[in-house]
Specification:
127 residues, mainly alpha, elongated
Length: 127
């Protein structure tokens, strides 16, 4: 069942992202820097895991490009939410998971579009 597989992969990605954000706050790194590091890490891990586990689709350059673009489109939402939590002095240990929950539905829709909607491009090469 795809929703359960999506939730499992997303939980790993969310845990990884939250760990990066919380660790960054712990050592005094601004949330924007941690968010950038989290984004790059989770895009690679998330794409490969969703290809294999969630959607059973072979990885491809075009699919990765779509996935990265979809996740990049979500980045402003995460930034605004984290900036709001920061302005309210909410500790990152609470702010990161709250932001993750808030972006979950958007991430599912964009992940499905990026990976499962392959189109009919016959020259797309697998990576």
């Amino acid at each position: 069942m795809k929703p359960l597989r999506y939730i499992a992969v997303s939980a790993v990605c969310a845990g990884l992202s939250n760990a990066i954000l919380i660790a960054g706050a712990f050592v005094g790194v601004h949330f924007a820097v941690s968010l950038g590091l989290s984004f790059v890490t989770v895009v690679v891990v998330g794409y490969l895991a969703h290809c294999r586990v969630t959607f059973a689709a072979p990885p491809s350059r075009n699919g990765f490009g779509r996935y990265a673009a979809a996740m990049l489109a979500n980045l402003p939402l995460a930034f605004v939410l984290l900036a709001g939590w920061d302005a309210l002095h909410v500790p990152m240990i609470f702010a990161a998971p709250a932001t993750t929950v808030a972006t979950l539905a958007v991430n599912y829709a964009s992940s499905r579009w990026a990976i499962a909607s392959r189109g009919t491009n016959a020259v797309e090469r697998n990576i």
